[in-house]
Design a protein that fits this description.
Helix 2 links the parallel strand 1 and strand 2. The protein is α/β, with parallel strands linked by helices and 240 residues long. The protein starts with a helix and ends with a strand. The strands form three sheets. Strands 2-1-3-4-5 form a five-stranded parallel β-sheet, sandwiched between helices. A five-stranded antiparallel β-sheet has the order 9-8-7-6-13, with helices on one face.
């Protein structure tokens, strides 16, 4: 009984990779780090396992036989929000950006350090948990409840990924201030280094969801040569 209760408290991670060696190594590191690990070797099996036992996070290989990781990510996200870390053996930036565009919260390029992957998993899961502060944020028709991780625009709920929500919350907490991509990566992602295109893609995706005209952004403005600035006075403590 105690073992069953312990298992239920462990975050569940679904590892999807058709390379049995990679899947075994990643699963072993995650298990030793305290996670409950499920494994799948292809897209249909991953979707079936996710439906049977909803994971708290998915480690998903981009290059899968038959149904690739991008399609698996789309279908999983169609069932509800779930954090995704994409694995790719390619060094092509376009592939990394594709993963971010379909909603991956992070990516790791093969070959990678399993310990680094565990740290990325911990980072994404930590930021997916409800915020301790209960004060909601409100500005320019946007309402965010950090505790419920719920975002609303003009009465319509927004489908935001974990990183998109965190990025928007950060902007609302610091209206009128300019932040470089390095600043946003450190403050929102919690990393002191990384691929800055990650920030660029997430800002573009976020604009597509919060701006009336993403091609002419009014809220999240680019300050050329510096970074980004949120225009709009945020009001704390309002309920969405």
């Amino acid at each position: 009984m105690e073992q069953q209760q312990y298992a239920q408290t462990r975050p569940r991670v679904l590892v999807v990779d058709d390379d049995p060696t990679v899947a075994e190594v990643v699963s072993g590191y995650l298990d030793r780090a305290g996670y409950l690990v499920d494994r799948a070797a292809d897209g249909p099996e991953a979707l079936a396992r996710a439906a049977a036992h909803r994971p708290d996070l998915v480690v998903l290989d981009l290059m899968l036989p038959g149904m690739d990781g991008l399609e698996v990510c789309r279908r999983m996200r169609g069932r509800g929000p779930v954090p995704v870390i994409m694995l790719t053996a390619r060094g092509d930036e376009d592939d990394r950006i594709l993963g971010l565009e379909v909603g991956a919260d992070d990516y790791v390029t093969k070959p990678f350090s399993p310990r680094e992957l565990v740290l990325r998993v911990e980072s994404v899961l930590r930021r997916s948990r409800p915020a301790e502060q209960s004060g909601a944020l409100r500005a320019a028709g946007l309402s965010l409840d950090p505790q419920a991780r719920r975002a609303v625009k003009n009465g319509t709920e927004l489908a935001l990924t974990i990183r998109e929500f965190d990025l928007l919350a950060f902007f609302l907490r610091h209206p009128g201030r300019v932040f470089g991509r390095e600043d946003l990566m450190r403050e929102v992602w919690g990393w002191d280094f990384g691929d800055l295109s990650t920030v660029t893609v997430h800002v573009r995706r976020l604009r597509g969801k919060v701006e009336d005209d993403p091609a002419r952004p009014r809220l999240i403005q680019t300050v050329w040569g510096v970074g980004y600035r949120f225009e709009g006075a945020a009001e704390s403590g309002a309920r969405p």
